[in-house]
Amino acid sequence: MKKxxxxxxxxxxxxxxxxxxxxxxxxxxxxxDVSVSDVRGLLGAIKTAKPADRIVxxxxxYRLSKILITRPGAADAPVTxxxxxxxxxxxxxxxxxxxxxxxxxxxxxxLDIRGGPNSHHAFHIVGRADNTVLxxxxxxxxxASVKGNPQDNxxxxxxVIKGNAFxxxxxxxxxxxxxxxxxxxxxxxxISKNFIADFAKAGxxxxxxxxxxxxxxxxxxxxxxxxxxEWRQKGFRRxxxxxxxxxxxxxxxxxxxxxxxxxxxxNNVIINCPEAPGVYINRSRDxxxxxxxxxxxxxxxxxxxxxxxxxxxxIMSGAVSLRKDAEAKSDDNIQTGYPFGAYASSLARKLxxxxxxxxxxxxxxxxxxxxxxxxSTIDGFSDWLGKSSxxxxxxxxxSLFLNPGEADFRLQKGVAPPTVPYDYGKVKLDxxxxxxxxxxxxxxxxxxxxxxxxxxxxxxxxxxxxxxx
Length: 469
Prior knowledge:
Elements: H1 2-26, E1 32-36, H2 39-47, E2 53-57, E3 60-63, E4 67-69, E5 79-83, E6 89-92, E7 97-101, E8 106-109, E9 112-114, E10 121-126, E11 133-135, E12 138-140, E13 146-149, E14 160-162, E15 165-167, E16 179-184, E17 190-192, E18 195-197, E19 207-214, E20 217-218, E21 221-223, E22 226-228, E23 237-243, E24 260-261, E25 264-266, E26 269-273, E27 279-282, E28 284-285, E29 287-290, E30 293-297, E31 300-303, E32 308-312, E33 315-316, E34 320-323, E35 327-331, E36 334-335, H3 340-361, H4 368-387, H5 394-400, E37 401-403, E38 408-411, H6 456-464
C-alpha cells in the first residue's frame, strides 16, 4: 500500500513539473536590455539575440561590414536594435549590403546609417523576414537603402517602413538600379510618413525612383510620405512613387503575372520631379490613388494593358496619362496640364541625346559651342513647357500656394482653396492627421482645419539626428 501510494505521489509530482515547464515555455517572454558600446558587442548581441531582446547602441561610431540575421524574434516579443542617443550614434559601412534579414520580427529604430559610393543596401529584407519594422531611422548613401527580395521561394510580408529619412548626398554613379525603397515581391508592405529625397542616378539609363513595390506583391500601401525628387540637387530623371517600377517580369502576354495588385497611394506629397511622372503604374491592377498632391512633376502615368487604377481627389501638375492600352477611372482631380505635355518633354530629352550623339560622330564638322547652344534652347523650351498650362501647368499651382516647390502649401493671400463635389471615402484624415470635414478638398490638406505644415515631417526626423539642411 505504501509502495503504491509512493508511485502515485511521484506521478503527480512529474505531472506538476511538466505543467510548470509548459507554463514557463508558453508564458510571456521577459524582455532584457542588452547595452553595446563597440562593434564586437553589437555583433555578439545580434548573434545571440532572443525574442524581446532590446539591443541598445551607446553613443559612438560603429564601422560595420555585412551582418546576416537568421535568429527570429516573436510576434509579441520582437528583437529591437536601437540607439540610446540617435544624434550621437553613427553606423558607417562601405559594404555592398549591411543588414541582411532572413528572420521575422526584428525592429530597427533611431539609427543613423551612412553608406559608401558602392553601398547598395542598408537593409536587405528577404525570405522569412516577415514583420520587419524600420522606424525613425536616418539612412544616407545607398543605391537602394531598403531592398526586398524573395529567397527560397518565400517573400517577406507585412513589413513596416515608417518615419524614416532616406536620401543621398550626391547622385549615385552607377548603372545599377537606384531606388531608395526597392521591393520585389512581398505582400502588405506599409511605407508611411517617410522623407524620401535626392535619389538621382548618374549612370546607365539615368532613371531612378523614390520607392516602388513590384515583382508580384499585393496590398501594398504608400501613405503620408514626403517625396522631394530634387531637394538639394538637380538633374536626371527621377520618378516619385510607383507600383511596378521598371518591371520585373520579362513577359508581356496574358499569362505574365502582375507587378502589383490592390495597392494604395494616399496622402503623399510628391514634388520636383521635372523630367518624370510623380506617380508611375506599370502592369499593376486595382490600384487606388487618392488625395495626393503632386507638383512640378508629370502627373500620373499608367503603362501597359494590365494596368488599371482609380485616381480620385488628387491635385497634380500635369495630368493622368495612359499609354499602351492602360486604363484608369479618373474623377474629381485638380489637373493643371495635359497628357501630351509629357510626350513633348520626352521628345526634348531624346533630341538632346541625338544631338550629343551627332557631336561625337561628326566632331570635325559640329562645333561644341553650337551643341551647347542647341541644348540650351531645348532646355529653355522644356522649362517653358513645364510652367505652361499646355505642359505641367506649374504656374497654376504657384498662383494657388505660397511655395509648392519647397512643400509650402499655405494658400496665397486672398485665394480660396480648390474643392471638388464628391468624396470617394478612401482617406479619412489629412496629411497632418486631422479628420476631413464635409467640404471636400482634393490633395493632402483639409483647409477647413487650418494650415498644415508639410515640412514638419522632414524636420522632425532630421532634427532628431542633428542634421543641418
